[in-house]
Description:
Nucleotidyltransferase, domain 5, five-stranded mixed sheet, 15 helices
Amino acid sequence: MEDYSLVLNAGSSSLKFCVYQxxxxxxxxxxxxxxxxxxxxxxxxxxxxxxxxxLAEQALGAEVxxxxxxxxxxxxxxxxxxxxxxxxxVGHRVVHGGARFATPTxxxxxxxxxxxxxxxxAPLHQPHNVAAIEAVMDQLPGVPQVACFDTGFHRxxxxxxxxxxxxxxxxxxxxxxxxxxxxxxxxxxxxxPRVAPEIAGGRVIVAHLGSxxxxxxxxxxxxxxxxxxxTALDGLCMGTRPGAVDPGVILYLFxxxxxxxxxxxxxxxxxxxxxxxSGISNDMRDLLESQDADAxxxxxxxxxxxxxxxxxxxxxxGGIDALVFTAGIGEKSAEVRRRICEATTWLGIALDEDANTxxxxxxxxxxxxxSAWVIPTxxxxxxxxxxxxxxxxxxxxx
Length: 398
């Protein structure tokens, strides 16, 4: 059997994974991908091959109640499918790298300690990312692990883009704008020369629109600004997160309504955004199908915030040459793309509605002064590439 590397993306209720096998030639290929979902409620395991054909699908027992037991279930499947093979490395998505980690890094005890300290900055994601690393240490002792940070791609932005305008002693404690979804943006930047060479060196705004949503302005494929800041609560309206909120509202929740810190944290991370506005769902598909007035309002607000922030980033970039849609909503919802493009015609976007409906790569007319594109993201491949490179497992062409 061929040796393999593993990519893990651990969340609160799911554990996503990809398995890449290494041939005798040294080349890597995707062999399997899947997830354990419904952790803590109705856990289900699913795996598919590189063509999307099912390799496994089964309900798991109630003992799969957290990330560690989910990893146990995945490990059992891996041992069966890849018996006799060696795991050469494991790459992880880690949401927050703080000020210290600007690039992927091999996990050590010191690195792990520092990642624990960043949990308050990303309470929805970081604890599960770190728990997955610790579980792999137990399951696969001695196998090197690489932490790949969603904040890393944004390091090197202009100082004004990273600044949080608070007193210096507060800023020195690490309070700054970090930006997130960096692995997605890094992947898009890496494929622009091949997919859309005419815009690769220009001013491109990438719209990562999913349950978590943000925008990033690129110049020559480098991040110069983004809508997410110190935590993953800023910027656009998201599935259960509000995006930008007047800080005075938070003070009001504490001082006038008497909510506790835990209650406010839960509201901001799990009960706001599309779910909070609609009262129905955090899933854009449900909202688009609904005739409920609040569901329509939630969609309207999502589009409004995205449109408003596109204009702001165009100003920060000194103009815009292209708009790229990616992630779940960005890749799959022609309706949301249409509405955003129609609201940004003033920037020079001339939407080709037929191309958009067909989910083509370019969805604007050739005459459009600013082009719009749909480019699927691949954060897992980005993590795998970093893991191979950092561990010395990559071919020169990868």
